[in-house]
Amino acid sequence: MRKEDLNLSLIVSCQPVPDGAMDEAVFVAGFARAALAAGARALRIESSAYVAAVRSAVDAPIIGIVKRDLDDSPVRITPFIADVEALADAGADIIAFDATDRPRPATIEALLAAIKARGLLSMADCSCLDDAKRALAAGADFVGSTMSGYVGGPEPAEPDIALIAAMRQLTPYVIAEGRIRTPQQAADAVRAGACAVVVGSAITRTEHVTSWFHDAVSTAFSQRDAATLAIDIGGTKTLTALVRGVQVLAEATIATSREAGPDDWLAAIAEQAKHWSGRYERVGIAVTGLIDEGRWSALNPATLAIPDGYPLVAQASKLFGKPAFAVNDAQAAAWGEHRFGAGGNEDTVFLTISTGIGGGVVINGSPLLGLAGHFGLLRSPTLGEAPLEDVASGRWMATEAARSGHQAEAPEIFEHARNGAAWAQTIVAQSALRVALLCRDIQMMFAPKRIVIGGGIGLSSGYLDAISAHLVALPPHLAPHLVAASLGPRAGIIGAADLASRNG
Ligand SMILES: CC(=O)N[C@H](C=O)[C@@H](O)[C@H](O)[C@H](O)COP(=O)(O)O
Question: What pTM was computed for the model?
Answer without folding.
Answer: 0.70
